Amino acid sequence: MAAVELAGAAEAERLRRRFGRRHALARVGVYLAAVLAALVCAGPFLWSLVTAFKQNRDLYNPENNPFFFNLAATPDHVLYLFRDTAFVTFVWNTLWVGTLVVAITLVLGLPAAYALARLDRPWSGRMAIAIFLIYLVPPSLLFLSLSRLVVTVGLQDSTWSLVLVYPTMTIPVSVWLLIGFFKAIPKDVEEQAMVDGYSRLGAFLRAVLPLAFPGIVAVVVFAFTLTASEFIYALAFISPTSQKVVSTGVPTELIRGDVFFWQSLQAAAIAVAVPIAFVFNLFLDRFITGFTMGAVKG
Amino acid sequence: MAEVTLERAGAQDGTGPARRRLADREGFLAWALVLPSIVYIIALVAVPFLLAIGLGFSDVTAGDPTYHWAGLRTFRRALDDPVFWRSLRNTFVFTVTSMALIVVLGKVLANILVVDFRGKWLVRFLVLLPWTTPVALSAVAWLWLLDSIYSPIDWTLRHLGLLDGNLYWLGRPHLAMASVIAVHVWRLTPLSAVIIMAGLVAIPSDIHEAARMDGAGYWRRMLEVTIPLTMPVVAVAALFGAILTFTDMTVVYVLTRGGPTNSTQVLASWAFIRGIEGGDVAQGAAVALFLFPLLLAAAVAILRAVRRMEVR
């Protein structure tokens, strides 16, 4: 099937070549559009990158060209960010909150997704959609009552409050994605495992889970990104610097009243943005299949 | 453990009743596997939601957290504040404008991203940056981009001779609003492009081939095949964009804190400023509750779009 498609694509490609000039023009158009799109999307970050390495005398002169180095570049402000601010603490907090949240998400979400994808109940389709819709309940609706709740259980001003609350955002999306991945695994796999003497549960744990591994990795990335991006809960629950995460720490601690540590701020934005986008990009195609498969009737 | 042995015994029998027992157990298993997630979500989404409604009818403050029923008094206090009406209007302006732009630009971006070209990996990486970066951090990058004195946009305009002095992007009501909308659109367009891309990829290629055979050109195919077939997906992208802008306060909070003089205040940021920073929990909750009816409408619309996709 794939080979046929490939041959078809090659044939189409050859035909398209024959159209000659019109085709070449279209190619140029595509490249122009792609470069333009990339520039608009990444523009603020490219500019951040230049800013991060600028000297103060260079940066704070409105006559200087803001896109280039008018004076020699300096790593001082980037080093300042890593050495003399709490940035490393923020990153560390984000990492361990994210790890624990992902762990909770998988422990709760994997079984739920498997049940909804495979144990055909009359309610599984509706339940899957209901769980997904929970994702659309926004933090801005719940943060006040949750902050009262967090105070009640004694977790205010502690990163543990985020570990407790974040799975409510990650479980719904993850379950939806995982349903898609589980549906893509042939049913014969479990049937064979059960013939071999595994129970239903055993077949899930020993035969299906290993096959779903690529999907699970994608879900880990997605869930982690969600927790790293969250802002409202983190801002509402936590005020001590040592407990803040990246997304609240950078905008609140590196801006002191009227004093903006611009170069360090921009360095922080880049240092967080690039790794996340890089990893996310690796899994983009898998996210797309996961999301669309979840909607397919299994 | 006992279950496993039972199951094996059943499998060895291999007869009718054993198979029915297996089916029975699937029913039990399904609930056992789904229940932990549901309990978690009910405890930390449904309960807080009810609590939020309860808070809206109370006089709870951060200083005095004991619950007293206040009836509609808190709501009336919230509605009497002109800032509330301003926030409500701003929320609608932001949502409608950015949603329209996000869908149109997302469609354009999706059409670029489905084409194969050299260096696509890099382009895709750069295009995804706005969406994958934590909002608070990209807002910080924009805060610097829109700086009142050192904005490179102003610098460029000055050097093109189009501007004298500075525009003060975040200091003037209309420009501040435009800035907030621009950041929302910039941030969510990649997401909508990805959703629409998924829809484009899902169109069977033989439909395109058939249309091409029949002599339909690029624009004809786009208008009469691609767009109608991707409509449900576009609807989903639009509603996602709507919900994410409608309920977001991060961009406003980092860029303007609702200023100048509340001209960019939205419901979510107003709820936060009243409820957390002002300590008036009850009023904050009352304001945030106004987000709910629109959310509900959006959710129903998404369900409809999804159902239409299933029918197809």
Are there runs of chain B of 5+ residues with pLDDT below 50, and where? 1-16
Task: Kindly report the average pLDDT value of chain B.
Answer: 83
Judging by the overall fold, what is the CATH architecture of the largest domain in chain A? Orthogonal Bundle
Q: Average pLDDT of chain A, to the nearest integer?
A: 86
Question: Segments of chain A where pLDDT lies below 50 for 5+ residues?
Answer: none
State the CATH superfamily name of the largest domain in chain B.
MetI-like
Radius of gyration of chain B: 26 Å
The gyration radius over C-alpha positions of chain A equals: 24 Å
Tell me the CATH superfamily of the largest domain in chain A. MetI-like
Number of strands of chain B: 0
Q: What percentage of the residues of chain A does DSSP assign to strands (E)?
A: under 5%
Give the overall shape of chain A, derived from the CA principal axes.
flat
Distance between the termini of chain B: 45 Å
User: How widely separated are the two ends of chain A?
Assistant: 22 Å
Task: Report the CATH C-level class of the largest domain in chain B.
Answer: Mainly Alpha
Outline the structure in words.
The complex is a heterodimer of chains A (298) and B (312). Chain A folds into 2 domains: 2-74, no CATH class; 80-295, MetI-like fold (Orthogonal Bundle), CATH 1.10.3720. In chain A, 76% of the residues lie in helices and 1% in strands. Chain A contains 15 helices and 2 strands. In chain A, a hairpin with a 2-residue loop joins strand 1 and strand 2 (259-260). The longest helix of chain A is centred in the C-terminal third of the chain and has 34 residues, at 262-295. Chain B is an all-alpha fold and 312 residues long. Chain B folds into 2 domains: 2-56; 81-311, MetI-like (MetI-like fold, Orthogonal Bundle). In chain B, 77% of the residues lie in helices and 0% in strands. The interface between A and B is large, with 104 and 104 residues.
